[in-house]
Amino acid sequence: MPTLTAAAGFTFAGLVGTAFPLSLPWLPLLAPLAVFGIYALALHPFLGAPLRVRRTQRR
To answer: Which domain of life does the protein's organism represent (predicted)?
Structure first.
């Protein structure tokens, strides 16, 4: 289901992007910042908390 939702979202974004062509010459300059932002959001759960190692209890 997440794949279907993502595919529909990208399709909708593509349709909106082609239906309303904007002339923004500075827009490609934002692409690296957007990629870095997405990368940082993806890594945030892994970098937010220190890695905890569970120790097994001896009986």
So the answer is: Bacteria
